[in-house]
Amino acid sequence: MSRKKGRTQLPQVMLARFEEMGLDLDQFVPALLSYPTPSFRINPLKGEQESVLESLSVIEPEPVGWNRLVFRANPGEVKLGNLLEHFLGQIYVQDTSSTIPVTVLDPQPGEEILDMAAAPGSKTTQIAAAMDNKGLLLANEVSAKRTASLTGNLDRCGVINAVVTNQPGQVYGHLAPERFDRILLDAPCSSEGTLSRNLRGLDIWSENSIKRLAKLQGNLILSAYYSLRPGGLMVYSTCTFAPEENEGTVTRLLEKFPDAVIEPIELQGINGRPGFPEWRDKTFHPSARNILRLFPHEHDGEGFCIAKIRKPSSTVTETAKPDKRLPSKHRPGRGDAKPIEKEETGIVKKTLASLEERFGIRPESFEDFHLFIRKNDVWCSTQEAGEVQFPRITRRGLRIARAFEHSVRFTTNAVQLFGHLVTRNRIELDEQKTRLFLAGKTQDVEQPQDASDGFVAAFNSDCALGIGLLKEGKLKSQVPRSRRVIG
Ligand SMILES: C[S@@+](CC[C@H](N)C(=O)[O-])C[C@H]1O[C@@H](n2cnc3c(N)ncnc32)[C@H](O)[C@@H]1O
């Protein structure tokens, strides 16, 4: 842990609340304001666990116990986000506590899963990996601005089973009743547990904002519950300690649906506490005790609260009422599904032929996927993600190529995912040249005998880095600006 800070930085009202929660402020506050040990999650969609761990041995990865893909590390001065493995999407830098909700959700390949409040996508990418990129992952985020970070992470992690929608989570209860096998609601919250990395959160923290958020969470949790199939599992999580936003929100669900089951969370390597029985004048539902609470002076990670909720029976007799406060465009029947893509087999065929000619990728390699055109680009998704229709879909799958009048360009995101299929026009780069390539530079290279001028796939020790343009011994990196790594 580092960056010790004192309680003078926190508002008195907040400190008084923490004391009321029974916390020892001398231990709790310094831990809350210190960075937890750096940690990361391996993304098996992009790398084989053993070889990723081997290449990261210098940062001494230590397994956490509850999830075989999550590790604490000792990176010293090195930023995990600057590592080659991060650029390649083989690792995702994620706080250990933040990896627990999806571990509890336990997504399975081929299921239909809703991530109701998804940006920036730490948990969406974790769900996609657990699903082995199969089935349908609906990643919803209300904020169009925050969606950019979500799609950037989906790209880097090579996710092709996700469909992104941009709407308030409150609509799903009536838009998709009893549809999903599993749902994650990682709710907007007062974020008290992440103050070590974001003290600016204090600017908008107040007891009033806690009340406002609790109301929003109440509507979101009901919407999620309506949208869960009978027998399905949902996880409700927040990165805050406020009981109103945790036991309070779960109690609201149980008051409406008394047969909802809050299951105990049993995971190894976690030092957590049970949910609070009461707060001020409110007594919570007894099963809210099964909430897992994480405090940073007891668990080396950020503050979190997690509830595991099973839906034993149908709610179809109950009609999920559209939230009247939502703008009318988000009410049912409005903004109905209009496909943003078209099937235009001509361009798809041309793209596949071009990928075969230039890179030796056999067209049959894409047989199991859904390929479609959006504007002039070719995208690839699972069949399930390709077919589903919902209002306000902003993206599905991964863009694999851009088709121009006379040429087709494979994307860096796609070559990283399908690099193992590339048999022609490969160029191997050493460590130094790899750094320049990642920074988006043009550099002199020795032209391999079997590579001709034009687009080539750059590799470092068999890991596909991205696309470059080779011309007369110079290689111009085509790594998109948003993915470049400087330093
Ligand atoms: C805690 S963050 C989610 C973090 C994300 N699950 C992750 O792990 O990267 C909560 C998100 O909910 C979004 N949000 C706020 N109100 C929402 C609503 N009514 N419906 C859906 N998302 C909402 C916020 O914009 C924010 O991105």
Automatic annotation (TrEMBL):
Domain named SAM-dependent MTase RsmB/NOP-type: residues: 28-312
Presence of keyword Coiled coil: no
Protein name: NOL1/NOP2/sun family putative RNA methylase
Keyword annotations: Methyltransferase, RNA-binding, S-adenosyl-L-methionine, Transferase
Name of one Pfam family that matches: Methyltr_RsmB-F
InterPro entries, per database record: MeTrfase_RsmB-F_NOP2_cat, MeTrfase_RsmB-F_NOP2_dom, Nop2p, RCMT, SAM-dependent_MTases_sf
GO biological process: RNA methylation; RNA processing
Active site positions: 239 (nucleophile)
Annotated organism of origin: candidate division WOR-3 bacterium
Gene3D superfamilies, per the entry: 3.10.450.720, Vaccinia Virus protein VP39 (3.40.50.150)
GO molecular function, one term: RNA binding
Region of interest (Disordered), residue spans: 315-341
Family: Belongs to the class I-like SAM-binding methyltransferase superfamily. RsmB/NOP family.
